[in-house]
């Protein structure tokens, strides 16, 4: 799923570059799509420069330059918000929350391990010592699809 989201973001970058070049500046859609797909930040800057320094006096290239900045900005924001998952700090925070929860119940926690299964899902375990017995419980942390908040649960 995470590769799908990343792939869709790159496809959207390529499409926005290609469409802007084609309709705003009468350039080849296919060439600019490939350029935008593989090197979208450079292609976006290239289109803006072409649009701003257009000597024909036409407004379409300038509008296209503004459009590409807007579209790439929005796509970058959406990719950063929805395309990212657990950071290393998030993983440490979740481990600390699990540790704190069980220690708050008076149980000794010997280890908490969470490993990234996907960008938005962690799996692992918590090792506990209670009443002289060692207990291991499996844990899962899942991040929301629409924000960076997450929930965790140990069985």
Count of distinct strands = 4
Shape: rod-shaped
Rounded to an integer in angstroms, the radius of gyration calculated over CA atoms is: 24 Å
Helix and strand element order: HHHHEEEE
Ends: how far apart? 25 Å
Strand content: 15-25%
The poorly predicted ranges are none
Throw out a few tags for this protein:
155 residues; alpha+beta; 2 domains; 4-stranded antiparallel beta sheet; 4 helices; 24% strand
What does this protein structure show overall?
The chain is α+β, with helices and mostly antiparallel strands. The protein folds into 2 domains: 2-82, no CATH class; 88-154. 57% of the residues lie in helices and 24% in strands. The chain contains 4 helices and 4 strands; from the N terminus they run H-H-H-H-E-E-E-E. The chain has a 4-stranded antiparallel sheet, covered by helices on one side. Strand 2 (121-130) and strand 3 (133-143) form a beta hairpin. Helix 1 packs across helix 2, helix 1 (2-25) runs antiparallel to helix 3 (60-82) and helix 2 packs across helix 3. The longest helix is centred in the N-terminal third of the chain and has 24 residues, at 2-25. The model has no long low-confidence stretch (mean pLDDT 82).
